[in-house]
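Q: Structure tokens for this one, please.
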Amino acid sequence: MAAAMGVLYVFESATLGGRFIVRHVVTTAVPSAATTFFGSYGDEVGRRWSQVRHAIRAWTAGEAARVESCTVTAAALFGALEAELAR
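A: Here is the predicted structure, written as tokens:
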């Protein structure tokens, strides 16, 4: 469960980050249709991100071992994604 929560954090935070990417990309020559991928949940992004945060907080319940397990998984996934994108 801790690994799933860590992965959930990484992927769902990416949907939130997509909003910031779109704000930048629309100021360039990139066609707006190219930003569709980053739209993910549309107007629901903020609400869904809030739900994810609440679910993770509820599951970890401040227990250090659970928080650490989620964090280790999230950090490993961020590292793997960074390595893959750097290839």
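A few notes: The first helix runs from residue 2 to 25. The chain has three helices and no strands.
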